[in-house]
Amino acid sequence: MNTVEVIQNLFLRSGAGWVLWVLVGLSVVSAVIAFERWLLYRAVDLDLRAMAEKLDGRLSAGDAEGAIAELKRSPSVAASIAAAGLRLAPRGAEAVDKAMQSAVALERGRLEKRLAFLGTVGSNAPFVGLFGTVIGVIHAFEELGHAAPGHGAAAASQVASAAVMTSIAEALVATAVGILVALPAIAAYNYLQRRVATLLGGAEVLTNLVMAYLVERAPEKAKEAA
User: What does the domain layout of the chain look like in residue ranges?
Assistant: First the structure.
C-alpha cells in the first residue's frame, strides 16, 4: 500500500464529521472572544468631553497632582495614557511625550489581545470547510467505485448516482459551515479593530491637552530658573 492509499484510507475512516466539529469549536471560541473584547472596550471608554474639562480645570490651577488623581479614578484608556505622561511632568515636555507614547503602545497591546485569532478564523474557516468537502468528495468517489460492480448496468448506475449525490451533498455542508463561521468572525474583527482605533484616537484629546499646558509653562519655568 503506497502513501496515497494510506492517506485515502485515513480520510475514509475519519470522514468529514470531525471538520464540522472543529468549525463549531472555532465559532464558539470566536464568539466568546468577541464578547469579552466588547465588554472590555465598553469598560475602558469614557466621556472625553467631561474628562477634558476636569483635566483642564486642574491643569489651569497648576494642580498636576490633582489632575493625576482625577485621571487614576477613571478606568479608561485615554486617562491611563494621560496619567502616565503627567507623572513625568517635572522632567519636561519631551519626557512626558515619550511616556505617553510608551503608554499608548502598552494599551494597544492590551486592546488588540486575541484579535488576531478572530482574523485568522475569518480568513481560514472557509479553507477548513473546503478541506471537509474534499474528504467528502473522496468518500463519494469511493462509494461510486464500490457501487458499480455486482449490479446490472441500470441498477449500478442508479445506486452509484444516489450514493455519489448523497455524499457530495453532505460534503458541501462543510464548505457552507466554513463560510458561516468566517463571516461573523471577520465582521467582529473589523468592528473591534475600529473600536481600538477609536479608543486610541480619543486618547489624543487628553494627551494633546497635557502637552499644551506643559509647552505653555515651559517659558515660565525658564524665566524662574534664570
Answer: 3-218
- Residue partners of 30: CB distance under 8 A and separation at least 6: 117, 118, 121, 181, 184, 185, 188
Per-residue pLDDT tens digits for 179-212: 999 999 999 999 999 999 999 988 888 888 888 8
Do the Cβ atoms of 161 and 205 come closer than 8 Å? Answer: no
CB 121 within 8 A of CB 185: yes
Instruction: Name 95's Cβ contacts closer than 8 Å, sequence gap at least 6.
Output: 88
Question: What is the Cα Rg of the chain in Å?
Answer: 30
By C-alpha distance, which of 82, 203, 61, 41 is closest to 70? 82
Please give the C-alpha separations between residue 55 and each of 62, 71, 107, in angstroms, as whole numbers.
11, 8, 20
For residue 2, the 8-state DSSP code is: -
Report the 10 Å Cβ neighbour count for 15: 15
Cell of 202: 480619543
Strand runs (DSSP E) across the chain, as ranges?
Answer: none
Q: Alpha helices of 73-152 — where are they, by DSSP H?
A: 77-86, 93-111, 115-147
Let me know the angle formed at the C-alpha of 39 by 35 and 43, rounded to the nearest 5 degrees. Answer: 170
Residue-wise pLDDT for 14-32, tens only, equals: 666 788 889 999 999 999 9
